[in-house]
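README: folding subset

This subset contains proteins for which both the sequence and a predicted structure token string are available. Records are stored as plain text. Below is the entry for 7-dehydrocholesterol reductase (434 residues), shown exactly as it appears on disk.
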Amino acid sequence: MAESQLVHPPLFTYVSMLTLLTIVPPFVILMWYTNVHADGSILQTFNYLRENGLQGLINIWPRPTAVAGKIIICYGLFEAALQLWLPGKRVEGPISPTGHRPVYKANGMAAYTVTLITYLSLWWFGIFNPTIVYDHLGEILSTLNFGSLIFCLLLYIKGHVAPSSTDHGSSGNIIVDFYWGMELYPRIGKDFDIKVFTNCRFGMISWGVLPITYCIKQYEEYGSLSDSMLIHTIITLVYVTKFFWWEAGYWNTMDIAHDRAGFYICWGCLVFLPCIYTSPGMYLVKHPVNLGLQLAISILVAGILCVYINYDCDRQRQEFRRTNGKCFVWGKAPSKIVASYTTTTGETKTSLLLTSGWWGLARHFHYVPEILASFFWSVPALFNHFIPYFYVIYLTVLLLDRAKRDDERCKAKYGKYWKLYCEKVPYRVIPGIY
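--- output ---
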């Protein structure tokens, strides 16, 4: 990634990368510590660190253990085996700037279903108690923290010595290459796609497994399951199930088709996602809230509605692309722009840009229901502490920045056609506001 390709000024970008590389790994541990050992109070954790400084952080940082290692290895190998061996439809990804088109096996829904059934069966038949995962969660996150940094280093080396496709290259800056990655589509052999494993199978499936773990832990701790934990878990599982129902569409998004495999994506999905994305449920384990039937149902309906709208946005665009624009959007023929672009190999290609339906409201309107859904699976914790809402704030910043990056990428790709598109769809995310 050359400096001319950076969305933000180079100095801001480099400072941001260095900050995230140094701050985010310990932040994951502090998130766990606050939810599990500091009563969910950010102030309590802050005061502890203020009084004890760096030694305080070292004292609360769990040491990697054999138990944690076994859990991670068993889970990782299980998901890798499912990714390789479960049958699935052959799906082609988008053509890359170098003209490469990756091919995937779409078996994510099967892998997700098999994982949840296996996990619940191990608990039901007394073979494995999921509370062990919660009880060793700090050690698991610590082990993942260090292990994933080594994994990203190996990806960096692989990008130099054994790239999997023509979609690779160095910026000439070690920090940039480690952070953003060297390869767009790294694979082991022909069939094992590394980003599908880190993003979809290890990361996203853990987002389904951990809320179930938290439910079982709360039940064993208190002898009952609070309605707040139940509502949080249902909305979360509906969202994750939606993701795997639509997984092939995800392979066309920025995460897979444009962001390379480095610290930002891979460490994020291996460590940050399992901890931060599941943090509202982690908090609720020791802070059960009684919502009452009316409030619980209201939150549930609102959350599921937001997940559905988010899904329908993606479905609408996917159907538009699949039919090459020969479909109906909200009962009408779609409004579109035919945009041409040139690949790095000099080939001229065309894309259709949808300008009606959800995609006529804003260029990234699908982020609105996604942010709202995250609020509704966090709000069952109510408002005694701020920490259950950290993910909502983080997601909002992430998606607004992603919308900006995506717009800049499309502007560079489509030129005058993107300008025309922005004239037809003037708002970036929120209709009438932004």
